[in-house]
Amino acid sequence: MRGTFGKMGFILAAAGSAVGLGNLWKFPYMAHRNGGGAFVMVYLVAVVLLGLPIMMAEITVGRSTASNPVRAFRKLGGAWWSLVGWLGVGTGFIILSYYSVVAGWTIEYVGKCLAWSAEGFTKADAQRVGKDFMAFLARGDRQVLYHGIFMTLTAGVIAFGVKRGIEAVTKVLMPLLFLILLGLVAVAATTSSFGAALESLFVPGKIGVRGILEAVGQAFFSLSLGMGAMLTYGSYMSRKESIPRSALMVCGLDTLVALMASVIMFTIILGVPPDQRGKFGASSVILFTTLPEMLYNLPLGRILAPSFYLLVGFAALTSTISLLEVLVSWFIDDLGWKRTFATIVVGAATFAMGVPSALSFGSSDFLSTKFAPLAPKATGFFDTFDYLAANFLLPIGGLLTSVFVGWYLSSAFTRKEVEEGHGPFPLHLLWKTLLRFVCPGAIAWILYSIVFQGVKFN
Ligand code: PHE
Fold first, then answer.
1. I need a surface site. Which of 117, 140, 260, 366 has the fewest CB within 10 A?
2. CATH number of the domain that residue 342 is part of
């Protein structure tokens, strides 16, 4: 028996999948590095022209077959196309294994912040925070422990199934996440650098090719596209719901969260005098090194700091459950395994797969620096996996999905499916055209640029 989401269930779960470390950590830092406003503009265009059509395509394949990615592509396209499903399952396995490691860091930081809030965040703490973070990264035992805890939490939710697990958890966590984020934006709005933050985020400046590529790649990762997560959630969507409206809501919410997170981060960054801002530069670790101090400088910092890391953890959890569900659904549908059993086995395997990533932040010299098959583009186990997944596997999955739904599936079929639960859909031709030409063209250009021009994303 396959589950089905209740009303709003799909939107909340899918938004939960989309909103994650990509929005709260990657997006603000990439926007900052690429000149703010122009990056945001390109990103918005990418979401509308690529993200929205491909998300609708994934949901269409999922809902029309009520199957996991492998079976869905096989049902509609035969054995060869089922390879796209396999690619998705493989990509999900890879992403989940390392994503859970970073997600685990939030557990440490919620704990740290609670202690700081209780005892006060002192100057000495501020000076130590960067070094402490590096030391924490290099502690293999901690890394593995938190990764294990995060995988256990994820598996715990998935074991309860689609309605009582995924839907129930995202129904609580998503509104909560939104509230915490709103609270942080409200506090940011009371500080003097808020205006400057808005300006640098929304007034476009210059952007280079690399920035454009990063914006497009980020849209994929952030919207959870290209590996079957939206397809799998789509397979649990009720036939009474509208695919175009749901996809629009999910893309809108995901973008809104990325922008809210950026407003908060930019306000904090710009609140620091320019001569002390150097260390933010291109650093992707500011979330754990400079942010605690900044949060404690804000009004209500003692409440905001732990809430913030809790928020990041929640956002990551609703993303990891979508990744694990893709894998588990295959074992349930195709091998006939019981959900609990499948969850334990797959959860344990993913945990094991993530251990080398957990040890690649300094605790193992081999995994941290020597393991570099893709050097100089990526160094270390974690980096290599992230590079491979975000820059190749997701875009390739998205490209094949858009070709499949754009060219292989007949217009009669796709029209019937998107109109079910929606009513007449006059934009069908536009959607098909985007899937046929714009999406494959843009993605092929990205892949070409990465391979032949050495543009690196992360
Ligand atoms: N979209 C998630 C984020 O922004 C990451 C993710 C990618 C989740 C792919 C599922 C599938 O953090």
1. 366
2. 1.20.1740
